[in-house]
């Protein structure tokens, strides 16, 4: 699915990212989705976290569908699936050889730098997030915003934005 609201880039897997089972270690895959999320935010014109106020991962749900292996390119994608008052949800995908390997949803909470408590999403952050929002009803099978039969509820389906 090509969509200007979706950020995508290739990620490099290192030989040392593999574990004894011969595939990329799951913990390393979490680091890769963190990298794609940061690259997406910068590409969307947002200042990197820290320079624009603190944001933290409140929840992370990951579905590992296939192993990732060293050698073949890894296509990574990120987009926004929900926007609340103080938080937003980023959907991540890692694909290799045109196969979905990982799908993850991260709920990111915006914090007040003085108190460390959740703070409202202000402009221009809210506008940028809205520009990259893809709702479930805009999607079709195996595309952003959809759930597979039998999969647990995703964070965006539970997230009310009332943090």
TrEMBL record:
The keyword Hydrolase applies. Keywords: Hydrolase. It comes from Nesterenkonia aerolata. Its EC number is 3.1.2.-. The keyword Hydrolase applies. This is Acyl-CoA thioesterase. It holds the Pfam family 4HBT_2. Belongs to the 4-hydroxybenzoyl-CoA thioesterase family. It comes from the Bacteria. Coiled coil: none annotated. Residues 130-141 have a biased composition (Basic and acidic residues). GO terms for molecular function: hydrolase activity. Residues 130-163 are annotated as: Disordered. InterPro entries: 4-hydroxybenzoyl-CoA_TE, HotDog_dom_sf. It is an enzyme of class 3 (hydrolase). Signal peptide: none annotated.
